[in-house]
Design a protein that fits this description.
Length: 242
């Protein structure tokens, strides 16, 4: 057991020093589902009383880093990733800026007739051919979300054959010189449907966050994409930015 000496003359409360140290240790050495040492063991490690340890743990509980489980101890939770949804949010760029490794795999590409909701959101006539690309996005090699992209095929004829991975919006900007901005997003909590649970590696009874977004051409203000995203609710904290 590594002992840690708190600085009682540092001008910072002892419990906050301990919370900061444990926060970093959990980040470096623990996985979700791991249990921390007992409060007695931690008190001995830091040479403080249990009340101080409990106060430090309360700080981490308030941050959703750990959770007390009656009769079992204190368990490490999945770390929630902050995902800001704004006018020009891009999955790859957002997480790369946080030092995260992202990945994309394409589940399917298929041309379908635009049905009710898709036709309305893309402002096209019913039965207009649209391309649906369904992608599975990873963060640090863990499934993070599934996105169903619906795009008018006449506007983007090459996407079906030429897009293979990475940022779809960056691909569109590069090949079509269209800058895509978000017009609106609607979020609901629900249960996974179809094969989503399998792709996200969660039980079918596990909740997801579903976000419906309409994205438009920044120049013409015409809808160019309707996106239906399903996030693992245990991995994300969504922040909607105007």
């Amino acid at each position: 057991m590594t002992l840690y000496a708190v600085n009682r003359n540092a001008g910072e409360a002892v419990y906050l020093q301990i919370a900061r140290y444990l926060r970093q240790e959990i980040k470096n050495n623990y996985d979700a589902g791991d249990f921390l040492p007992t409060e007695n063991d931690l008190a001995a490690r830091f040479s403080v009383n249990r009340h101080t340890i409990r106060h430090a743990l309360d700080e981490l509980i308030a941050e959703d880093i750990i959770e007390r489980q009656h009769g079992r101890g204190t368990v490490v939770l999945n770390t929630l990733l902050d995902y800001r949804i704004g006018q020009q949010t891009r999955f790859t760029e957002t997480f790369s800026s946080l030092g995260k490794i992202t990945g994309t795999s394409i589940i399917r590409k298929v041309v379908i007739p635009a049905f009710g909701g898709v036709a309305r959101r893309l402002d096209v006539e019913p039965n207009t051919p649209v391309l649906m690309i369904e992608t599975l996005r990873y963060v640090d090699d863990q499934p993070f979300c599934i996105i169903s992209h619906f795009l008018p095929i006449q506007s983007f004829p090459k996407i079906g054959t030429d897009y293979h991975s990475g940022s779809l919006h960056a691909f569109i900007q590069k090949h079509y010189e269209i800058s895509i901005v978000r017009k609106e997003s609607l979020m609901t909590a629900t249960l996974p449907m179809g094969e989503d649970a399998s792709h996200l590696q969660i039980p079918k009874t596990f909740p997801i966050l579903r976000v419906k977004s309409i994205n438009i051409d920044a120049r013409t203000l015409r809808p160019v994409e309707y996106a239906l995203t399903r996030f693992r609710a245990d991995r994300v904290q969504l922040s909607f930015v105007p």
